[in-house]
Amino acid sequence: MAARNFPNRFNSNLHAPVEICVKWAVGAAGAVGAVVGSFLDPNTPVVRNGAGDYTITLADNYANIYHVSATVNTAVANEDLYCQVRAYNGAAAGGATIQILCKAAAVNTDPGNGDEIMVKITLSNSGLNV
Amino acid sequence: MGTPRGHFKGFYHRLRNPTLVKGSFTLDAVPATDDVQGRGFTVARTAAGRYTVTFDDAAAVLYSARCSYQEAAGAGAVDMYGQTGTFTAGAAPTLVLRTMTAAVETDVPVGDRVFFEAVLYGENLDR
Q1: Could you say which of A3, A7, A86 has the minimum Cβ distance to residue B70?
Q2: I want to staple A23 with a disulfide (CB 3.0 to 4.6 A). Which of A53, A107, A118, B44 is the partner?
Q3: pTM for the whole thing?
Q4: Which parts of chain B have pLDDT scores under 70?
Q5: Cβ of B38 and A4 within 8 Å?
């Protein structure tokens, strides 16, 4: 990395926004592999609920959610797959939960072995944003 | 990574004074945009599956943008994804968002949500 000086920050008109990034490796049959991220549930940050169906659990609860985007980083070049956001529960016991689906057309589909799912979530607990 | 080593929290970068605008909305039965969340913009449905975000302040450049779809109300079987469209710079800059089924602009079902974020240059936040 040639230049390591990044002196600027993004301006925002949201109050106290929090951005959480998480990614996980996908193993055989859609299994959750290594999870990378912070402020996640320390025990089960990502759970596979079924084919192409995952739930992320954060370490805390949040009052507002502003943005979620998810993408699949494919290990091969011929996967017809996209990610979709499903249920969100900011007040879930044990930490906010966000469900991510991986789909081929309308069908939940496991990503390939070796793929990664990358998710970015923007949240806030400030009542000033409403 | 060498520097910075202060381990400060937050995202640092080398752009000059960019603004990150994030928000989300649903569609009602009309259909029209509803339950808009976020600050610094308005949003309106301009055609089936097409929504125009108008930012409150001037912007000259759109560095990056994302749009995603949340199936909040259905049974998890909707074939839909978000896409960003044309950005128009100016005093009231606009960004087109789309929700797509295959290659066709399609309204999000009532109760589902569209998320977006945009990194803009030149938006004045001194309000």
Answers
A1: A86
A2: A118
A3: 0.87
A4: 1-9, 123-127
A5: no
